[in-house]
Amino acid sequence: MFQFVKNSVKIIIVLTILASLILYALIKLDIRYPSEISKEEIDSKYLLESSGFIEIDGVDLHYAIDGSGPDLLLLHANYANLIDWNPWVNLLKDHYRVIRIDIPGHGLTAADPSNDYSMQRTIFLLEGFLNAFEVQKLSIAGASLGGTIGLHYTRRNPEKVENLILVSPGALNPRIRGRNEPVKLPKPFEIIAYFTPRLITESLLRGGFGDPENVTEELIDRWYDLLLREGQRDAQIARVNQYVSGDIDLVLSEIESPALIMWGEKNNVVPVELAYEMKDMMNNSTRIEMIIYDKGGHQLVQELGIQTAKDALEYLMNYKGATE
Predict the structure, then answer these.
(1) pLDDT above 60: residue 225
(2) Which residues partner with 71 through β-bridges?
(3) Alpha-carbon torsion (192, 193, 199, 202), positive or negative
(4) In Å, what is the CA distance from 301 to each residue of 5, 44, 144, 221, 243?
(5) DSSP code of residue 297
């Protein structure tokens, strides 16, 4: 028995070393599995009728604009894309001019040539984009990373933001909260840029749903395709390695805009207890509401798109700016 265990350990060690050598070779030779998919091929598959591109400080930003009325900006989560907001757009475009962007390194927006994915850079690009479309007043709905971006934008531009909808932003996660330096990925995880099986995307999505069985093959395929778009894997790893949520406690306390917080009871990424803490911290908001979805996980936009869209519309329609 002892000899069997000893031999098994040796085999595991040999296989680990072999795998490490193979991955090292992939990096040195810049060989990726699967290979990157060209921008042209991916774009032809996922461009929307309302899609457009605009260059902001060297970044070719992909956006979509639907409907007419007061401006409503939708900001997606990390690893996500603007297509995920389709259920919201379908419902809200009759009342709002719904504006979506792919955050740099996501969807059909190319990597940032500056390789700067900090929060400051992200807000700078967002401000440039909104200024280009002469947006004076707007409501913002942001999911996870998008919610944190929305909070920082609102703090910098309080006079512009009429309403905030925060879909489980992760900024209060103890792992990153209050840090001035990013929590970088362990070096082995950066191998994902070179070796990216579809299982990675599938696991990421299933882990973010309250019921993993609700993850569709179509959703997995779209996320995976867009991840393989040339340059995106490196960009997303760079963003994770540079991410700092900022002094989020102070940011939350200074927000005066009305806000709706949406959270999933089964959120395994940012526990639901933090939703209540966030609500308490936003004590300067002129109106604060919260909805907890008992069957929802972290990725509410993808999992409960229609329900969250209906709740968002009801909340926004109570504000006089909406188009009847």
Answers:
(1) yes
(2) 97, 138
(3) positive
(4) 47, 24, 10, 17, 22
(5) -
